[in-house]
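Notes from the 1:1 (GR / supervisor)

We went over the backlog. Supervisor wanted to see one worked example end to end before approving the batch request, so GR pasted a single chain during the call. The sequence is below; no edits were made to it. Supervisor asked that the structure be written out right there so they could see what the output format looks like.
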Amino acid sequence: MKRLPVLVAALALFTVGCGSSSSSTTTAPTASTNPVFIASLSPANEVPPVTNAESTVSGNATITLDTTKDSSGNITSATASFAVTLGGFPAGSTVNVAHIHEGAATCACPVVVNTTLAAGQVTVTNGLASFTKTGIVVDSAVAQRIIATPGNFYFNVHTALNGGGVARGTLVKAQ
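Structure output shown during the call:
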């Protein structure tokens, strides 16, 4: 009969453990990071390469994509922020526009993300220029393609002297 109390106690514990119909699984939240891309800008990367007075320009662009995704992980909306610094401009240079193009490093390809920069918004002082743009709307399909294959995109800056582009660089994922 000593076994009966032990059996009853074990059965009671089993019943208590199985009696709850709710289960809670806790998972650690995943860090939400926005992808960051960089582009090393050079006149030699333009098509054709820049060989005039602005051939000494160089710089860097940092592009951050802020995306919203649905429950399946598909991008439903995206915006971009740009931080661009350039140097080596000769006196009298004027920055006009800047944007992301989709295509190979060897082509003058279509613009897919415009920074909305306009002529006169960037001042070149002592050969240096910089600008930031935030909250630029990016088509969700374009954002997905940039994240998946950043090397298929390039960023470039245009000036009054080099309307086709003064400095350009292929996107590389930084984080």
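Supervisor's comment: The chain is about 15% helix and 40% strand.
Batch request approved.
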